[in-house]
Amino acid sequence: MKKSTTGLLIGSALVVGLSGCATSAQQSSGQASASSNTGNNWYQHPAICGLAGGLIGGSIGYATSGSSDEESGAATGAVAGAAIGGLLCADRTPEPVAAQCPSYGEVPAGVAVDAEGCPLDSDGDGVPDYRDQCPGTPAGVEVDANGCPLDSDNDGVPDYRDQCPNTPAGVEVNALGCPESLVLRDVNFEFDSAQLTGPAQQVLNGVAERLVSNPDVRVSIEGHTDSQGSAEYNQRLSQERAQSVANYLASRGVSSSNMRAVGFGEERPIASNDTDEGRAQNRRVELDEWN
């Protein structure tokens, strides 16, 4: 049998075998994406295919070369065949694509999504609209799994609006979340004046934040003094101090139309005026719902 015929027969046989390996490898790659078996058979390994390709290329190169350049023709064909064989059997299994919105779990069909394919969350509270039972929650408010603002004491007034966040269970509260008038602790003034102290302003910052979040509620700011000094003087001082608190809250964004300032002077003591401790308790500012 002539050299060229022998080479072509060997090459043809190896081409058929290599094609089968490559086809099988591609099928296995397609199946691997749907199953946990991502490995190829031994004969599908790129190295094996490269070896087969080298034999094919060498055979064809030898068969097609002249008698004077058989060796160089075989070598060139072997190198080219090995490269082609390796490429044919290369693993083309696609890399797994990570879920774009893994925190949402399985999203029902028909749910509105954004440009990234994530369910819409209009109020940005981390609970998608299709599960949010309290849409429109203000930015930054902590919510539960249903998207509703937390209400730690379960009094019906959410924490971000609750001026009395630790009300005992079962106690009836007003719109401020308080069972009665709230004494604004540590809201103090400079001696014999209506000038708020620095620590008092810090306390009022928190009060203002909750009032701004509760714009439908109107409040009464009530000033009280002890009995030292004349009743007329105490009445005027308590009014000025109540107004000072209202003015500060207004500067923090609380609507002035939602507040009234009332001074009661020494008329409503909550402790004895005969002791320093009692008088200190009587000098106070209270916050109450204004109906």
UniProtKB/TrEMBL annotation:
GO terms for molecular function: calcium ion binding. Keywords: Cell outer membrane, Membrane, Signal. Its main location: membrane. This is OmpA-like domain-containing protein. InterPro entries: Bact_OuterMem_StrucFunc, OMP_bac, OmpA-like, OMPA-like_CS, OmpA-like_sf, Thrombospondin_3-like_rpt, TSP_type-3_rpt. Gene3D superfamilies: OmpA-like domain, TSP type-3 repeat. Residues 180-291 form the OmpA-like domain. GO terms for biological process: cell adhesion. GO terms for cellular component: cell outer membrane. It is found in: Cell outer membrane. PANTHER family: LIPOPROTEIN YIAD-RELATED, STATOR ELEMENT OF FLAGELLAR MOTOR COMPLEX. Residues 265-291 are annotated as: Disordered. Residues 276-291 have a biased composition (Basic and acidic residues).
